[in-house]
Amino acid sequence: MFDDRSPIYQQIAESIKDDVLRGTLKEDDQVMSTNQYAAFFQINPATAAKGFAQLVEEGVLYKKRGIGMFVSPDARARLRGQRQERFFTDVVDRMLDEARVIGVSVEEIKKHIDGGNR
Amino acid sequence: MISLRDLTVRYGATTAVESISVDLAPGKIYGLLGRNGSGKTSLLSVLSAYRKPSSGSVTIDGSDPFENRALMRDIVFVRDALDAVEGDRAGTLLDLHARMRPCWDAELAAKLVATFELDPRKRIGALSRGQRSSLGVVIGLASRAPLTILDEAYLGMDAAARMAFYREMLADYLEHPRTIILSTHLIQEVADLLEEVVIIDRGRLVVHEDTDTFRSRGVAVTGAAETVDAFAAGRAVLAEQSLGGTRQVTLYGALDADERRQAESAGLSLSPVGIQDLFVHLTSPERTLEAAR
């Protein structure tokens, strides 16, 4: 589940964001408690708590005292907005760089997207 | 709070632990990492009041644990020797701890005995290496001591038993948080369970920080030899290897965003270093401590 690439708390935050984006977690859904999360993924609960704290800070989750943590109503829309902003720089530009390096033309890419190569 | 101050342990002319100072806040799971012979067991023996330091001090909540009845009751130290009579039955040893340990949980002990498929009627001297370790883990966890110290408790356990050990330890810690110190050199297996790591090498403290921070300290930089050398100049290099004109160096110290961009625009590729590799590099024989600082 987790790798050495980045701090685990960040990986936890990213995986919950992915669940929100995909709709696996819906607005006002309760997320697992830090202890449940720790037991499920076999990680230290302080690490899980740090991941959740980051999501609360970013407004993806909100806390209800004594009950637990829930998905913020606008979390999905906001995450989509953020990812869309990064989409062209992080995904499209990188693909175009790779295409240039290996000699794939933009025309070929367009043709592939239009279904010509499928 | 556990405080070690200039803690030194000597055996004749040999110095096993050399002037270690460290503070451990209560309620966390710590990993004490070091190679064989690095001084882990000596350090833990002092911490658990099994021996006096040669110099320096250990205090637990301000008091010296040595021959301190109230503190010693709250410390369980599970080590290789099991501190048992070899001719006794495993069940007898468990009964002894049940009487000695104020927080002993008989239900948990029974559950763990079943999990590890231990036969309480077996004599301790007749247990296999792995069963011996499992018995130690049962004592360590069921004692539920506020300070639980497990010194290489996994020795001889097969992969399935080790996984069961880690799972049971985490589950019980979640229910009953306490200070747990695990000594190990199998970091990869337990890293995710540790809140903080303490690494010692040749008796000296090398690293004490939270596991996630430590995890992000290592970076491998690969590229043309002269570009790599220029980038690595002035940084702590843990390891290097070359093949033809390509060189890879393992650096210690997290790179910030600017440094990463600088490396990438120079055509260098950056990759993470696994926590086990980082540990191996930090404690390899040819390394001196000072370079890692």
Automatic annotation (TrEMBL), chain A:
The keyword Transcription regulation applies. Keywords: DNA-binding, Transcription, Transcription regulation. SMART domains: HTH_GNTR (SM00345). SUPFAM superfamilies: Winged helix' DNA-binding domain (SSF46785). Pfam families: GntR. Gene3D superfamilies: Winged helix-like DNA-binding domain superfamily/Winged helix DNA-binding domain. Residues 6-74 form the HTH gntR-type domain. InterPro entries: Tscrpt_reg_HTH_GntR, WH-like_DNA-bd_sf, WH_DNA-bd_sf. This is GntR family transcriptional regulator. It comes from Winogradskya humida.
UniProtKB/TrEMBL annotation, chain B:
The keyword Nucleotide-binding applies. It comes from the Bacteria. The keyword Ligase does not apply. Keywords: ATP-binding, Nucleotide-binding. Residues 2-227 form the ABC transporter domain. This is ABC transporter.
